[in-house]
Amino acid sequence: MSRDEMRRGFFGEYGGAFVPEALLPRLEELDRAFVEATADGEFEREYVRLLKEYVGRPSALTECANVSRHCGGGRLFLKREDLNHTGAHKINNALGQALLARRMGKKELIAETGAGMHGTATATVAALFGMKCTVYMGAVDVKRQAPNVARMKALGAEVVEVHDGLATLKEAVDAALTAYVEQPETFYLLGSAVGPHPFPTMVRRFQSVIGREAREQFLAREGRLPDYALACVGGGSNAIGLFSAFVDDASVKLVGVEPAGRGLHTGDHAATLVAGRPGLIHGFRSYVLADGAGEPLPVYSISAGLDYPGVGPEHAFLKDSGRASYVAVTDDEAVEAFRTLCRLEGIIPALESAHALAQALKMLPGLREDETLLVNLSGRGDKDLDQVLPLLGL
């Protein structure tokens, strides 16, 4: 293994571990522990038990017949990660990594969060396993995601506001990575499929339960696989969790949906795969929204969980290989999709998930009646109501 980069953990040319020399031994230790744990039947049994008894899995597969009638064309299905304990897909990964941390003898978790759902999930598993928890969160996101900040504090976590730069998700990741380097006794519970190896591989592994369940449920219900599988993409964990079960099924078209913000032409967006180019960020190689010097650009999205200037390396590989396509929808389109799902199905989606739903609403009218579209509803939207209600005139 090269000391300049870890060759295992690459997806084509993307991934790796481009980190300070002093951090490589810790990443190598983490990689070994992860490989050993996932080969241990007892570890897997405990993880599956907790997913069932604590998280409430399997999450439901819901057909949105009212939306389908409203739009015409194809049929819409949702994988209901919003029904998990803590209200999002983040708990799947947090639980798996916390079990790994306990196995490694760690007693303190650190994490970054944007929309607050990963921070909430980390605080939750820290409480469950009796661990100290510190969550780094951009000061802007602390204000716009106040309900989740309150939940983290109630669960016993310390929430550290980050005021650097734009004070959003990128800066929270910067701060968490710095703390991880400076505090060797901690376990960094990274929330998305980004970062240096082995984090993207670990997160994919623990989120793959989404895709496995969805595949089994769809086959049981419809006797066939969906024609399309859609998910929102910021860092990309919920999307890679869904896509992982369908990558080898050529009949299933994979579509990742990024935030176009106020419009791609304005520069106020975070559509990394649509508008970015290959580069380095946070210790890994992927697509990045960067300036001429390779420095990450300021990014924007109405959704606190999607405003990240990079993206998981496996998504970069899926884009270049043509196995998945990536599109972008605007703030306005996401808010309208939020309204539609609330009013027609009685389901309040997270703003992140509403981006994928918005793309689905665009696609449905152009599909045949026998064509099916599966959206990963990655989280619930109660955290976003203070932000969205004024935009809906309420």
Write a concise synopsis of the structure shown:
The protein is α/β, with parallel strands linked by helices and 394 residues long.
Number of strands: 14
Rounded mean pLDDT score: 96
Distance between the termini: 57 Å
Count of DSSP-assigned helices: 15
Largest sheet: 6 strands, mixed
Judged by helices, strands and strand pairing, the structural class is: alpha/beta
Element-level helix/strand string: EEHHEHEHEHEHHEHEHEHEHEEHEHHEH
Query: What is the helix content?
Result: 40-55%
Shape call: globular
Beta-strand residue fraction: 15-25%
- Strands in their spatial order, largest beta sheet: 3-4-14-9-10-13
Radius of gyration: 19 Å
Low-confidence stretches: 1-6
Write the layout of secondary structure elements.
Elements: E1 10-11, E2 14-15, H1 24-38, H2 41-55, E3 61-63, H3 65-71, E4 75-80, H4 90-103, E5 108-113, H5 117-129, E6 132-138, H6 139-144, H7 146-154, E7 158-162, H8 169-182, E8 187-188, H9 199-222, E9 228-232, H10 237-243, E10 253-261, H11 272-275, E11 277-281, E12 284-288, H12 313-321, E13 324-330, H13 331-345, H14 351-363, E14 372-377, H15 385-388
Parallel strand pairs: 4-14, 5-6, 5-8, 6-7, 9-10, 9-14, 10-13
Antiparallel strand pairs: 1-2, 3-4, 11-12
Helix pairs in contact: 2-4, 4-5, 4-9, 5-7, 9-10, 13-14
